[in-house]
Amino acid sequence: MRRLGVIVALGALLGLSAGVVTATPALAGRGHGWELVQAKPFTVPKFFCGFKIRVTFPVNKEYTKLFKASDGSMITLVSGSLRFTFTNLSTGKAVTENVSGPGKIITHTDGSATFASKGRNAEFFTPAQAKRFGLPMVSVTAGALTGTVTADGRETSVTLKGHILVDVCAALT
Fold this sequence. Notes:
- The protein is of the alpha+beta class.
- It has helices at 2-13, 46-49, 127-133, 168-171; strands spanning 21-24, 35-39, 42-44, 53-68, 74-88, 94-98, 101-107, 113-124, 138-149, 155-167.
- Strands 1, 2, 3, 4, 5, 6, 7, 8, 9 and 10 form a 10-stranded antiparallel β-sheet that branches.
- Strand 9 and strand 10 (155-167) form a beta hairpin.
- The longest helix is centred in the N-terminal third of the chain and has 12 residues, at 2-13.
- It is globular.
- 36% of the residues are buried.
């Protein structure tokens, strides 16, 4: 469960959903090396909010660019326009939010990662993570969000210098 929470949190922090996105060749006009992210709808498990949430993408013009640093780390930049629609599968109630970022993930050679995002982002934390970091389990934030994750998926820090725009669990009840 912890690893799923970390994976979902990292992906959503930057407008990506780990394990459910694939890249396609860059579209003309975006520039060399940028790839459009093809996100597929996914369902957030019940343990996050007490009900399942379906996440879909009414706007997906999110791009990534990958660089290799001199120390062997991989740097992923994320930029573009992305909106999530969060739907409570029990009631049908839905909210649509801008979660465009932008952001950056540095995957270090030891497998650990550092992430930093600005602007508006979606966050997904397990109950234990939410309690530890003082954030809602599913939310949309504004501001600078940074954090680190160990190679085995344990989050070591998450810091928000901004505010919660939407507590998604509360908004969908």
